[in-house]
Specification:
heterodimer; A: 85 residues; mainly alpha; 73% helix; B: 274 residues; globular; disordered C terminus
């Protein structure tokens, strides 16, 4: 599958940028950092591509609250697509 | 999205244009605009509700806002018809009061649910905890100051007009929630969802101005522009809720087109991480 996101970007950066479109840079950065700490006990920038599905899963309730079920699923799908997952 | 803010401004100016007519015509003009604004906002909120699933937190919020403004539209619409083409048409006091109570309770509850939804996300707010708490307390203090006098008047008249008490309490809750609604908007600045929360907060700011101006009305007895401005502020408050509902829909659907090309990816990264 062709990646939409440039490969030089960290996976967390891809997630942050996608979320920033909806939540703004401040909140998207905080959200990804918060979930990275909770789910992996690590900094967001240390997240690997293979950990992204878990990250997206963990972001689900937050996204669903703000975007609704359909919106959250769509954003998750877009992130997966951009990372070629 | 920013251009949505012109809609309340436009409605406000249109309402003030009523001053160009005779007092009787102006009243009909302003009430017609009010009814249109209520129904427009109610229908738009229902359309936004439909974008959410029944189990989503914001589904109930938008449903309540839609119901509140449709109820308000019906009440003002019946009054408009009663003063124009159907003089015999009037809502019984009990029904009119029940509608006022329902409208105010629904709006206050929906805004509270918006704030609780944000809290449920666990996302951080901008500023220190002290600054957040301070601004929330300040917002509540303003609500008490602004709503205190009408509430006391309402309590004195509660035997004859319970709707006034509920209406004032609803206004006070709404005013107290201005800061909790504005903080998420601040946290999401630069994002599409910011506009929804910002316009909801702006709507409550307009209701705050409405209450202040309403309290000043006895001092302006006979000044026509005073009551015209009151009507204009009310329409602005309602149409800010309309703008919020449109912003929410756009926020849910508007991104995909922006972000599917490499060009817009680069543009987005410049905007987001500068």
């Amino acid at each position: 599958m062709t990646l939409n996101a440039p490969e030089t970007l960290l996976p967390a950066e891809v997630v942050r940028m996608r979320l920033a479109q909806y939540l703004g840079p401040f909140t998207s950065k905080n959200a990804v950092q918060m979930i990275a700490k909770q789910a992996f006990s690590t900094d967001a920038d240390s997240i690997t591509r293979t950990q992204v599905p878990t990250l997206i899963e963990a972001l689900g309730p937050t996204l669903r609250t703000l975007l609704g079920k359909a919106g959250a699923e769509r954003v998750a799908e877009e992130i997966r697509k951009e990372l070629g997952l | 999205m920013k251009r949505l803010a012109y809609i309340p401004l436009l409605f406000g100016l249109l309402s003030l244009a009523g001053l160009l007519y005779t007092p009787e015509l102006a009243s009909v003009w302003m009430r017609s605009l009010l009814v249109a604004a209520c129904f427009l906002t109610g229908i738009s909120a229902f359309m936004t509700t439909a974008r959410f699933s029944a189990g989503d937190r914001l589904f109930v919020c938008w449903l309540m806002i839609g119901a509140a403004y449709v109820v308000s539209g019906v009440r003002h619409g019946v009054r408009l018809l009663g003063t124009t083409v159907m003089p015999s048409l009037a809502l019984p006091d009990l029904a009119a009061n029940a509608m006022i109570i329902a409208q105010n309770a629904l709006i206050a509850l929906s805004l509270l649910l918006f704030v609780l939804a944000w809290r449920a996300t666990g996302l951080a707010m901008p500023g220190s905890r002290f600054a957040q708490l301070g601004s929330i307390v300040a917002g509540v203090a303003v609500a008490i100051v602004v709503g205190g006098y009408p509430l006391l008047k309402g309590l004195q008249a509660s035997a004859t007009n319970p709707a006034l008490v509920i209406s004032t309490i609803g206004d006070m809750i709404g005013i107290a929630l201005i800061v909790p609604l504005a903080l998420p908007a601040l946290a999401m600045r630069g994002g599409l969802l910011m506009h929804t929360w910002m316009y909801l907060a702006a709507s409550e700011v307009a209701w705050l101005l409405y209450d202040i101006w309403w309290a000043l009305q006895p001092m302006m007895e006979g000044v026509r522009s005073g009551s015209a401005l009151l009507e204009a502020i009310r329409v602005v408050a309602i149409t800010f809720a309309f703008a919020a509902s449109v912003a929410q829909r756009r926020g849910l659907v508007g991104v995909r087109q922006d972000f599917d090309s490499t060009t817009s990816w680069n543009a987005a990264s410049e905007v987001s991480w500068r």
